[in-house]
Here is the input.
Amino acid sequence: MSARPRNLAGVITFEQVSKRYPDGTLAVDGLSLEIPDGATTVLVGPSGCGKTTSLRMINRMIDPSHGRILIDGKDITSEPAPLLRRGIGYVIQNAGLFPNRTVLGNIATVPLLVGMSKRAARARASELLERVGLAPELGKRYPAQLSGGQQQRVGVARALAADPPILLMDEPFSAVDPVVRTELQDELLRLQHELGKTVVFVTHDIDEAVKLGDRLAIMAVGGRLAQFGTPAEVLEAPADDFVAAFVGRDRGYRALSFASADALPVHPEPTVKLGEPLRGNGWLLVVDDTDAPRGWVNADEHPAGQPVRQQDLRLGGTLLAPGGSVRTALDAALSSPSGRGVAVDAAGKVRGTLRPGDVFGAAERAATSGSTEAYYDEKQLTATEHAELTAAEQGADRLSKDGR
Ligand SMILES: Nc1ncnc2c1ncn2[C@@H]1O[C@H](COP(=O)(O)OP(=O)(O)OP(=O)(O)O)[C@@H](O)[C@H]1O
Here is the structure.
């Protein structure tokens, strides 16, 4: 990701690290791993495979039985643990906030600890509150007066307060409902794009791992590293049967997230504005005054010449925006009542629609060669395609003239 700031510190190296608990449990077994700086590495694997133990060895909440851990080449035991932890933010499930401190008080904890003035610490806390997407007035509340998702955002803000190069996150979003969870994941992606920290994230959810991780470390029970690679590498070429089973039966579908849909042909689509009279037949795409899609209307079930009202609309499915993947394109096509997926530009205006056949072709292409580009260079030149495009363009012209 080119927009990320570079020159970061925070490469974390595990050298043959093992952890055996006093009761004999071997939680981590000979883990060797280089976690790159400025990127998100997700430790993912089934319950009990040693993810949390591995994470907590980085900030010395747990000491290895064997091996060593280095940060930027320096053994983490070469300085006192409290000093080490100043450079490492830590976020856990249920946020772990101090219940008797306000939100701002919670976020300002570490800045105050490292000697920042009260005033500067409060200013920093307010800035972070905004950064994690929370309204300033929430600063005065106590954690119990916040939703689970809001508490988790405060947890992230608190971990970022001392601007540590490293952020450790242990199942931070697993206690919230799926909608909030998606919002928090999106927020983390946005924040990470701005901040470029070395993030080590623990989850047992492969979907979350694929969404958030630049690298995945797949761990197997017994504390063994089964595979380390980018999400695309892991989904496309699982190292062994365990990884193949863990990444799951949907992995072919998930792998489409890494194939760009930018080369997919976008066909002109006639549109009709909300509130304007309807003409034509079949499914018609309804837009608002800014040309953003609002839904579909079936002209065969609508009195001709009558204006299209909000209540006539069948809401469209997901949209494909620039930079989207073949997975998004496929979902856009499958979730649209017309079967045609809507593509929008960066401003959210309708660009046209995707044909399911094209999207399936791209999916097949991505699965077999990993690239869709060549296919569509070829395909866009075929005579039928050209004829279809022209006809659709004429249809679009006619409709927009009639419709206004
Ligand atoms: N303090 C402890 N004493 C003994 N065994 C422990 C201790 N902490 C963890 N374990 C064991 O070590 C193994 C790894 O635990 P760990 O919490 O690191 O796994 P995990 O992958 O994070 O699991 P989960 O996804 O369920 O949180 C498990 O078998 C666990 O029971």
